[in-house]
């Protein structure tokens, strides 16, 4: 019988919680060290309910969650991928325990940021949510603070805002084809700083938009994804779990066009 998402095999739960390989955890269960709701587990392949069953090893209750959702303030200089090569990765910023909490799936990045981009990055084990937030079909708004190389007059600011609203045509870059971006919103803070909201997440989209307009992005920070704003108290490289309210703000769907 297919198990619901809330249910997981005990051996998988233990292996994902850092108790070794499947055969290590089988031996652990056989030793009687593992209890489910205070009763010694009889089989390693039994299913436990994450929402209500209390699993303990040597009396120590496991801290488990079906899915985890982290908000990170990504610093420049680290890459959004599992392997960094010459650079450190955003996964290196997580503690070992947080990296291994993968019960509902592998921990993955929701919408990558470039090496030199900072700001709001979501990491989650929830693949369905990740797909919903990043699929081009769903037009989830993402807002970036942008600093431009060349300061522009108020008249040009207006031209940029109109171009962004009607959809800027961006040329091909690297392996990516050219495209006409979906209309976005541009709000100016000064002649060289602004906040841009886009609805797709194409390759280098923000940098390509301003390059197509004849300018260059010199600093880029994601400050909002859907209705979720980056916590200003989170220092560069810091991260924490989302609260329930923040998760709702991230997943709210009434913006969908
Ligand atoms: N657009 C970019 O150009 N870079 C990013 O990192 C994110 C959006």
Describe this structure in words.
The protein is of the alpha+beta class. The protein folds into 3 domains: 7-61, Structural Genomics Hypothetical 15.5 Kd Protein In mrcA-pckA Intergenic Region, Chain A (Roll); 69-135 and 237-243, Alpha-Beta Plaits; 141-225, Alpha-L RNA-binding motif (Alpha-Beta Plaits, 2-Layer Sandwich), CATH 3.30.70. 23% of the residues lie in helices and 28% in strands. It has helices spanning 10-16, 22-30, 96-100, 127-134, 154-166, 205-212, 244-251; strands at residues 7-9, 34-36, 39-40, 47-49, 55-57, 60-61, 69-74, 78-79, 88-89, 108-110, 118-124, 142-148, 169-170, 179-180, 185-188, 193-198, 217-225, 228-229, 239-241. The strands form 5 sheets. Strands 7, 10, 11, 12, 15, 16, 17, 18 and 19 form a 9-stranded mixed beta sheet that branches. A 4-stranded antiparallel beta sheet has the order 3-2-5-6. Strands 1-4 form a two-stranded antiparallel ribbon. Helix 1 packs across helix 2. Uracil binds next to helix 6. Residues 113-114, 117, 204-207, 220 line the site of uracil (URA).
């Amino acid at each position: 019988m297919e198990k619901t998402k809330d249910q997981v095999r005990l051996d998988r739960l233990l292996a994902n919680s850092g108790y070794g390989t499947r055969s290590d955890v089988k031996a652990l269960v056989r030793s009687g060290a593992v209890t489910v709701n205070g009763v010694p587990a009889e089989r390693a392949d039994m299913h436990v309910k994450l929402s209500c069953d209390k699993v303990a090893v040597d009396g120590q209750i496991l801290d488990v969650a079906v899915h985890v959702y982290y908000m990170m303030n990504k610093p420049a200089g680290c890459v959004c991928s599992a392997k960094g090569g010459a650079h450190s990765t955003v996964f290196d910023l997580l503690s070992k325990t947080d990296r291994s909490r993968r019960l509902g799936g592998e921990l993955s990045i929701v919408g990558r940021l470039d090496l030199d981009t900072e700001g709001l990055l979501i990491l989650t084990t929830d693949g369905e949510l990740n797909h919903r937030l990043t699929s081009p079909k769903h037009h989830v708004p993402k807002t970036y603070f942008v600093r431009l190389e060349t300061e522009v007059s108020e008249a040009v600011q207006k031209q940029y805002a109109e171009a962004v609203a009607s959809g800027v045509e961006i040329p091909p870059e690297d392996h990516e084809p050219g495209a006409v971006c979906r209309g976005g919103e541009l709000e100016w803070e000064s002649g060289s700083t602004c906040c841009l909201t886009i609805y797709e997440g194409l390759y280098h989209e923000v940098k390509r938009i301003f390059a197509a307009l004849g300018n260059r992005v010199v600093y880029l920070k994601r400050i909002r994804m859907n209705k979720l704003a980056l916590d200003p108290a989170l220092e560069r490289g810091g991260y924490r779990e989302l609260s329930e309210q923040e998760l709702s703000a991230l997943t709210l769907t009434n913006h969908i066009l």
